[in-house]
Every structure is written in structure tokens, then in C-alpha cells.
Amino acid sequence: MEESRVLEMRGIYKEFPGVKALQNVDFSLNKGEIHALMGENGAGKSTLIKVLTGVYSKDAGTITLEGKGEVHIHSPQDAQNCGISTVYQEITLCPNLTVAENMFIGRGKGTFTNWKEMNREAEALLKKLDIPAKATQQLANCSIAVQQMVAIARAVDMDCKVLILDEPTSSLDEQEVEKLFGLMRDLKAMGVGIIFVTHFLDQVYEVCDKITVLRDGQLVGEYEIKDLPRVQLVAKMLGKEMDDLSDIKGENGSYEGTDQQEKIFEAEGLQSNAGIKPFDFFIKKGEVNGFTGLLGSGRSECVRAIFGADKVLKGKVKMHGKEVKITKPIEAMKHGIAYLPEDRKIDGIVGDLSVKDNIILALQVLNGFFKPFSKAQANAFAEEYIKKLNIKTASAETPIKSLSGGNQQKVILARWLLMHPEYLILDEPTRGIDVGTKVDIQKLVLELAKEGMSVTFISSETDEMLRTCSRLIVMRDRKVVGELSGDDLTQNKIMSTIAGESSV
Amino acid sequence: MKKQNEKTSIFNRLSDTNLLLTITIVIFFLMYLGAIIFQGGGFTKPQMLFNILNSNAALIITSCGLSIVMITGGIDISVGGVVALVSMCCAVYLDYHDGSILGSILIALGIGLLYGLVQGFLVAVLDIQPFIVSLAGMFFARGMTTIVNTAPFNVEDPEFTALKDTRIIIPGMGSYTRKGIYVPAYVEIGVIVALIIVILLFMVLRFTKLGRSFYAVGGNKQSALMLGINVRRTKFLSHLICSVLAGIAGYVYFLHVGSGSASHAMGMEMNAIASSIIGGTMLTGGVGNIIGTLFGVMSLCTIQAIVSSAGLDDAWWTGITIAAMLCIFLLIQSVVMAQKKKK
Amino acid sequence: MKNQNILKRLVSNQLFIPLIALILLAVINLVNDPGFFKITLGTNNAGNPVLSGYLITILDYGSELGILAIGMTLVTAASGGQDISVGATIAIAGSAMLRVLCGGNSRPETIQAPIIVAFLVACVVGMLCGAFNGILVAVFKIQPMIATLILFTAGRSIAAWINNNELPIVPDPKFSYFGGFIPGIPIPTTVFIVIGCIIIIALVLKFTNLGLYTQAVGINESSARLNGINPTAIKVLSFVILGLCVAVAALIKVSRLSTINYSVVAKDIEMDAILAVALGGNALSGGKFNMWASILGAYVIQFLTTTLYKFNVQSDALAAYKAVVVILLVVFSAPTVREYFRNMVKKLAPARKEAA
């Protein structure tokens, strides 16, 4: 058993300001094994991978490789030299170079590039892996899926002992995924150890031999695939704590105003330039509904279109039954729509500004350029919501970037709640934050709904959606494919709707 | 079947770099053609072209260096200052210190090397914005030039004047020049140096791993790192090459004008940036070509020649025309790339 | 313990660096020439009472820079880049002003239009130049320094073209008041102009959201947009405000000589303005800013210039010294260098504890 180990990670620690990303995590990989690394968003999968590939330096722990003993990996180059290749979810190739170059750059010795030989080798490899691209084509001219496959081809060709696939399938279609799995099995037969990170349970049970589960930066355990049925895997990923809130919906009750049938917001044939098909949508007063679907199915793009965050191409939008024009975020805000974006770092926080400024920002903009709040007013707003949402910060003047992820998210939430919106859109509000805050946010959503606010809730975790939403819009391939409510709101039903009739 | 494959691949090869390169070359020929039609006379003689080359050899060299930095995603606006500093130092060394030609060449290379090391270090290792670094570099060089010697003066060292006046006759052009013109066509030494550098850099960019990593780093720094390229080293080398070339360009400039002056090469950095951009180098990095840069310089200088032969007040109008051309090409790039992204 | 806190707060204050630089320069000058700080009341050629002395010179000649620092700070904060065309646009605005005042005649007997009209024309021209830069930056997404390179090259040529490359002289002595002295008042008029500008920008920052919007756009453009701010408009606005500052600076510059020299007017001032912003502790990559630190920074630069002159440095060579200052400033504010120092302090700290 011991001889077949290719990789052994022991006691890995990694801390970011405010977040303990990895705590005492062990991981081991055998020769010719496909090993799934599972966990929720923010469980520490990506951090572990980045520690292994030298993108982050670890705070403590050891990494041992077969035949090399303990290794110190300080850069992706070190990792490559140790025989560790990685294919990331986001394409890490250079779009301005050719396909062949992307496969061979940064490798091997020598000063010169032999274009003829490189193109020939690349062409051979592309043919072998059945990738529909020309070696001499500029990478930017290829589809995302093909780009992903080129990245895999590069990794495969590098004579690696450890191949890391970090959510490589999220942009591939079924056939391409099958092709990839075929490739993975071939490599497995050749004795390569593969670490496979994915969100798709089906895929795990289709190709993997072992599963390691992480949760909140800690190791839950390592299991043989046959010893761990799906239900248990999900339980391990989510953790026991989740049981406590399985029924928060029942506890709270729902909005019971006389106007609960009124449609607050209605869209007809709405389409943005983000590549989604036109869709219809409505939400009633005090309702919590959600968009569900796999990553990249277009759920975020839909709510962005509602808020005017992407360029709206066509479609009719009504508020309270009256037709209105929403093409820019400010117009949506004026109509009482608030939107908490998916990516907190990129679209949410204004890092260097204080917690106070971040809280008042949206209301301030709504208030107008020439009417700034007085200092006392702004402070009062900030203090109110810091207390209300239990935001842990040294003071209201602390820059938001020095807060932990969960508290940053609460600040952004405070920003929109301060606006007292009629309709609140929450896109992945619980991504990458600790369990306690997740529960807080879910409870808050239900409380708000009870008070009459309409909420659209999006989450990658179906459980979370089931706990909060009374109606789910299901998306596949950037298209609305179904709507579930009442008794249909079960994990199985969602799965089968996402998969489509053919696979039921 | 195979032939068809090749055809599509050639079409696909019309990548960002080649697309912009094609635009540049077409515009250059259109412009030169326009000059021949509307200005006639001078522009039909090959010597006109050679004169443009003679007086702009230094610009070609600096532009090439700058292109490399820009392809890597950086910028260097100190090159004009370095050219002035080099010509002043060499002039002082030759005339006041009775130096040798070899010594003056070493001074030029030394200044370039020193500039490259310092700027490369600041940009690549300390991660300071290249614009700020080279802006300071530009002012430093200009200031130093006056500190070295305030008044402009001509170099009278006989060895140097001999070298300066060396003309290389182009025999191949004899057949062209026979049409009425009996003076043989010639170029100066600087042009030969410039052309050698153009060919050399073209080879480096196309056929060496270093050259390709310039493109990779400019295309996507993060990806380049993931692909195992030493991004810092690549950035450092791009600045080093650029500054050393600026040193060489300084000497070529010096060889052409034969004097030292604090006002030499004023605005050359500007012309070099404009040439690179007109030549199809993207400001955002990752796209560009040395041949394009050569054509960029030629386009720019042809415009200048047209402006001056049209009898417009030279000094004022060239500034405006160059700025206008730069503006147009920047807008073309901006629009072309926005279109591409949409696709 | 409390002392330490005060010290810490003082050091972390943005005004700390420019103040220290100011004190350092003052001490150097005091040692070199104790008479440096002497201010005397004399009379000028016209027989008016005027204050003179090095300090007055600094206050007077630092005016243009102080005004430009206001606009440059906003541009830096919003766009994360700097406008290097300010010197050239001062030439354009100044030239337009002269054209209006002299009516295209190079030696007019009287001014052809009221000064206020000429100034307003200059303001419009300055704002147009700013808008041109701003649109290239905000709409076409060209890096600020490259976009402004266009006017940097063409500006002085355009200025010359406006007046057919002639150098008209303004005949009205009143026009020279703006860059000199108003009869009866011994303090340079420029000082009042700067104070006026500072009051205006202070009021603007207090009674509008310019500060918050600019910082939000500079720190996280995408987030600002999703909060209803129009980043394009804010960026263009910052450039337009800088254009206004340029017009005021042009008024002072032209008034000082009653004429203009296209190729040398406000030469290298862009460098000083950028330096002022950096010296004020504002990140050149944009985001949070402190207006007052920038303005103080501008006067520190002028102090430095005057000091260098005092040490007999030629005006053309000044740039070399300032370049060294810029490099030192950016090196010490670079994140990598700060990190390095922080680590060194960390390493040293335990050693100190052991020693204690």
C-alpha cells in the first residue's frame, strides 16, 4: 500500500486575514487512482489545490512526493517540475497565443522555439485526444470548451505523476465530459494519480475511486467510493449543523397581508447581452423564490438582467402591474429593487472604503449626488445595521477589506436593507462564508419575507434553496426549463428537472 | 483535403497580431502612394525613402525596444531622454576628454544597460507602475543631460566625423536611380544597425522561448505564471532590452547629428510609442510585431515628410499630425478589440 | 501606552509624510541660510507695497501647482492614472485667453474683450480638453497616461496654432494683477486665488458626493456601477474638473508675463503635479484620496524647487533631482517594499523583547 503513494500531504495549515482556510488537513493520493476532493464552496478545496501547486505558500504542514521525499513548492513552476500538473476551472492559458504554443510554452529546455516540430506534436496530440482545434489557431478564436481541453492536453502531455482537475467540467457539455472521462481512465491505467474537484455528484460516482471530504477548512474524512452512498456524502459535506435548521421555514410562517397575490415585479421576454435566452418571470409580495440550475446555467445572468446590471436587449418589465424601464442599476434601485451580486470581491465590496461608507453607499446614491448624508446621519445608519445584523467589526470606520468574508457579506446585505427595497435579489449570499452566518442569512431572508419583502434567492446548494424558497425556477443551458412549487420541491425533482426528461 | 486544411489554418492565423499588422502595412502603402500622387517629385525617388530611413534610424531602434516592452504589457517613456543623455555623454567624452570611438560606444551601451537594470528592477521586482518609473527616468535623463553639459555643441573629433560621414552606397538601387538621377542611393551606418536590430528582434520574438514569453506575459500575466513562465524575469528582460536598445539608438542618433544637446530627441518617446501603436502593438499587451513597428515608423515619418514638403510649418504641424494619427489608431484598436470581445 | 497611540495615529495620518518633508526642507534651509525665513515689506517697480522673501516666493509660485493638485488628485482617484497633458493644456487655455484678449492682433493698444470673458473662454477650452481626455479614458478604456499623451504631444502645437504662432502681449496692466500684486495689497494675488479654489473644492466635497463617488469608482468600478453610480460620467467629470483647474493655472501663468511662450510655459508641471499627489500619500493606482495632503504636497514640491535654486541648481537640471525624489517615494510606498519592511520589523521585534 505504502509503495503506491504518489502524494502525501500532512497537517496543512493556511490562514488568510480573518479566515482560517485550512486547518490540519491531510490528503493522500495513490498511483493510478482518481480521487475526488469534495466540499461546499469555501470548504477549502481550492485553497488546498493552490497550496499544492505553489500559488499559495502553506503556513504549516508537509508535502511528500513519491521518490522525492518532502518537497517545498513555491511556485507553479516548482509544481510542474515535481510532476504536478493542474487544469483550472478558469482557463489559465494565454488567449493571444496559438493553441500549440499554449500547449508547449514554459516547458522544456533550450532557447529556441521549433515551430514545425511544435505544431506537428501539438497536431498529433490534438488528434489523439480528439480535440477540434488547429495547432496554429489563435486560442482566443476557440470556444471555451476547446480552450479547456487544450489546457488538459497540455497537462496530459507533461508526463505528470499527479494531475489536478479543478472543476474542469463546468464549461463542458455531456459528450465532452465523456471524452474527458475516457481520457482520465486512460491516464489512470498509465498510473497517473488524479485529483478531481467537482460539484457534480454523478461525475464523482462515475469515475472516482476515493473521496476526501473537506468542510470549513477541516478534513472530514477519506472514504472508498463504495463505502459512501450519496446521501451520506451530502451529509458529510454539509455537516451535522445543517440538521438544526432543516425546518426554519415552518417556524417562521409566511407573509399574510391581503395583497399577497399582487405581483410586485413581472418580466416578459427579458433578455440581456450575457447570452441568456429570453425568459418570463414574476414575483409576488412577500414571496421567496429562486433560480436553480448548474453553474453556468444562466441563473445569475437572469437576475442581473432584472436589475439592469448587464445590457438589456429586449423584453417588457412591470412593477406593480405598470410598465417601467429598467436598463441601468440606478433605475432598478429607484423602483425599489436591490441586488446582492454573486461575486462579493469583484462586484460587492468597495475594499478600501470603511464599513460605514459601504453600508450607506446604495442609499446615498439613491439620495442623489447633491444630497450627501451628514456625518451623524451616516454614523447612525451604520451603527444601526452593525447592531441589527451583528456585524463583527472593530468600528464603523474600519476598511471593509479587513473583515472576514461572512461579515463583508453582512455589510453588503446591510447596504441593500438600508435602502428598504420592495424586492431583494440575493445571488449566492452564502458562498464562502461560515456556517453560522449562513444560517443567520437564511433566517433573515425568511423574516424579511414575512414582513412583506419579496426575495429572489440563488444558491449553489440546493438544500439551502429548499429551505428558503417556496417556488423554484429551474434553468438549463441558459434557458428556463421548469418551475417547481409545493410538493414538487424535493431534491430529486429538482435534479430530474435540471437533467431534463431524457435522463429521467 | 490536406490543402483545404492548410487554407483554413492560414485564415485562422490572421490573429490579433497579424490583423493589426495588415492594417498598418496597407495604410503605409496607401499613404506613400498618396504622397507620390499628390506631392509627386521627390517621393518617386528611392533616395527619399532612404533619407527617411537615414534620419530616423534611431527612432526605428527605440520603437523596436519599446514594442517589446509594450508587448509584455508595460511602457517605457524614458527612451527619448536616454537618447539625449547618451549623445551628450558621448559628445563630451569625445571632445572634452579626447576619447576613442570604442570608448564612446561602450559609454552608450553602459548608460542603456544601467537604465535597463534600474528600471527593470523597479518594475519587475518591486511591482511599480512602469509609467511612473519611466516618467521619472525620462526627467532624470533630461536633467542629467544638462548637468553633464549645458550648452549644445558639435563634435569635431576627426575619427568620429569620418565615421559620421560614412555612406553606404546601395548598388541594387542603381537600376532605379538611372532614371535621370545620377547620384547613387546611399544609407548611413545607423540604418544598417537599425535593420540588423529589426531582423534580430524579429527572430527573437518569433523563434525564441523568451520572445514567446513576452507575448504570453502581455496576453495574460496570471496565466503565464500558471504556465510556468518566470513573469518577473520576462518583464525585467523586456525593460533591459528596451533600455539597451535606447542606448544603441542614442549612439545612432549621435552618429547622425554629430552633436550633443539637452534638446536632442525631444518627444522621441512619443514618436516611438506612436510608431509602435500604429505598427499594431496593443497597449494592453500581448499583440504586436517588429515588422509592424518598422512600418509604423515609416508611416509616421512619411507623414512628417508629406507635412514638411507641403510647406506647412514643420515643428507645429508634425506635433498635431502625429497626435492625430496616434489618436485614430488608439480608437481603431479600442473599437476592434471591443468588437472581438463581443464575438 | 497612550503616547504610543498618539504617535501611531500621527504616523498613519496622510499629512505626516508631507509635513515631515516640509520640516526637513525647512531645517536644511535654516542651517544653510538663517535668513531664509525673513520676510520684508518693500515696494515694487510700480511703487506698491509688496511682501518679499523666500517663503512668499514659495507661496506665490506654488499656486499653479496647488490648484493643479486638486484636479490631479481627483483624476488619480477616479481613473487610477494620471493626466500628463496638464502643461500642454495650460498652453492651450492660455493661448485661447490671449487670443480673446488681443483679438488676433499681436500688439493691440487696448484689450479686445473683458478679462472675465477671456477667462471663461479659457475655462471652456480647459474643460473641453479635459473632456477629450476623459472620454478617451472612460469610454474608450485607454490607459490615462497614454490617452493624455495625445494632448501632451499636440497641445503646445495647438496653442501656437491658436495665435498663428505669434506671441501677443496683453496691454492692460490690470491683467497682470492675477499673477502679481493688486496695488495696495502686499500679499501676492495668487495666494487669494488658491485660497478661493481651496474653499470651492472644500464646499464641493462637503455638499456633494463627489468624494464618495470618485473613491468608489477608483476602488471598485464594477461594484460602483451596481450601486447605481455611472463610472464613465464620474471619470469624465474628474477630468473636466482638472480642465477647470488648468484654466485657472493658465490665467496665473499668462498673467505673470502678460504673454505666453508656447514651448516653455508650465513645462514639466505635470511631473510636479503627479509628484504632489504621490507626496500627499495618495496611491497613484487610484482609490482613496486626501485632497489636503495633495495640496500640502504641492507646496512641499515648490519648497524643494526653491531650495534647489538656492543651492544653484540650474532650472533644466531640476528634473533630475525631482525624479530621484519620485523614485524614492514610489519605492517606499510600493506594497512589496512595505511588506519587506514589515517582515523585517517582525523579525526584529522578538529580538528586542529578548533584550528587554
Task: Please describe the topology of this protein.
The complex is a heterotrimer of chains A (504), B (343) and C (356).
Chain A: E1 5-16, E2 19-30, E3 34-38, H1 45-52, E4 60-65, E5 69-70, H2 76-81, E6 84-87, H3 99-104, H4 115-128, H5 144-157, E7 162-166, H6 174-189, E8 193-197, H7 201-207, E9 210-215, E10 218-224, H8 230-238, H9 248-252, E11 263-272, E12 279-284, E13 288-292, H10 299-307, E14 312-319, E15 322-324, H11 329-334, E16 337-340, H12 344-348, H13 355-367, H14 375-388, H15 405-417, E17 423-427, H16 435-450, E18 454-458, H17 462-468, E19 471-476, E20 479-485, H18 491-499
Parallel strand pairs in A: 3-8, 3-9, 6-7, 7-8, 13-18, 13-19, 16-17, 17-18
Antiparallel strand pairs in A: 1-2, 1-4, 4-5, 9-10, 11-12, 11-14, 14-15, 19-20
Chain B: H1 2-12, H2 16-39, H3 46-71, H4 79-95, H5 101-125, H6 130-148, E1 153-154, H7 158-164, E2 167-169, H8 174-177, E3 186-188, H9 189-207, H10 209-219, H11 221-226, H12 231-257, E4 259-260, H13 268-278, H14 290-309, H15 314-342
Antiparallel strand pairs in B: 1-4, 2-3
Chain C: H1 2-12, H2 16-32, E1 40-43, E2 49-52, H3 54-61, H4 63-79, H5 86-102, H6 115-138, H7 144-162, H8 189-207, H9 210-219, H10 221-226, H11 231-257, H12 269-279, H13 291-310, H14 318-333, H15 335-355
Antiparallel strand pairs in C: 1-2
Helix pairs in contact in C: 2-13, 3-13, 4-8, 4-9, 4-11, 4-12, 4-13, 5-6, 5-7, 5-11, 6-7, 6-11, 9-11, 12-13, 12-14
Structure characterization notes:
- The complex is a heterotrimer of chains A (504), B (343) and C (356).
- With 504 residues, chain A is of the alpha/beta class.
- Chain A folds into 3 domains: 2-228, Rossmann fold (3-Layer(aba) Sandwich); 250-336 and 422-504, P-loop containing nucleotide triphosphate hydrolases (Rossmann fold, 3-Layer(aba) Sandwich); 345-420, no CATH class.
- Helices cover 35% and strands 24% of the residues of chain A.
- Chain B has 15 helices and 4 strands.
- In chain B, helix 5 runs antiparallel to helix 12 (231-257) and helix 9 runs antiparallel to helix 12 (231-257).
- Chain B is mostly helical and 343 residues long.
- In chain B, the strands form 2 sheets. In chain B, strands 1-4 form a two-stranded antiparallel ribbon.
- Helix content of chain C is 68%, strand content 2%.
- Chain C contains 15 helices and 2 strands.
- In chain C, a hairpin with a 5-residue loop joins strand 1 (40-43) and strand 2.
- The longest helix of chain C is centred in the last third of the chain and has 27 residues, at 231-257.
- The relative contact order of chain C is 0.17.
- Chains B and C meet through helix 6, helix 13 and helix 15 of B and helix 7, helix 14 and helix 15 of C.
